[in-house]
Recover the amino acids of this structure.
């Protein structure tokens, strides 16, 4: 893949250590399958730990193709808003700390990014939207994309 006016810095794994007041819970704590947004669910001991690796590919015409490579995790869009189940759910996409959308599969097309540095994050979430955690750390990946104004101006209009 040839890249012009664009590069992806090495992945930075950012973790947030949850404490007793953070709302961390296990799947067993979920009563009725629903929790408020921004809750956290700890992967149970003995369960395979899901992972996500965000890879950003510059599109040949315009924009970027985001690939969320997951292990021990299945995207299940038909179960959104249902009870949390180990190893399944969806992902949340954030750009510069602003939630953009949910991801129900590994690929997402992103048309434009602002010139300058863009922080792109994908987090793995349970069916009920809670953040999956392992050892108190969010299961997520973050990439930094630096965009020059020339990239947005010179890419095609398709």
């Amino acid at each position: 893949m040839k890249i012009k006016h664009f590069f992806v810095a090495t992945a930075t794994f950012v973790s947030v250590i949850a404490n007793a007041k953070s709302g961390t819970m296990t799947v067993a704590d979920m009563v009725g399958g629903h929790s408020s947004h921004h809750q956290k669910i700890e992967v149970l001991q003995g369960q395979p730990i899901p992972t996500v690796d965000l890879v950003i590919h510059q599109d040949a015409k315009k924009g970027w193709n985001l690939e969320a490579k997951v292990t021990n995790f299945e995207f299940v869009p038909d179960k959104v808003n249902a009870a949390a189940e180990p190893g399944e759910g969806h992902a949340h996409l954030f750009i510069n700390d602003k939630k953009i959308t949910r991801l129900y599969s590994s690929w997402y097309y992103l048309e434009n990014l602002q010139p300058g540095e863009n922080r792109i994050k994908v987090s793995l979430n349970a069916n009920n939207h809670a953040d999956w955690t392992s050892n108190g750390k969010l299961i997520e990946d973050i990439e930094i994309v630096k965009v020059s104004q020339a990239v947005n101006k010179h890419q095609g209009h398709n």
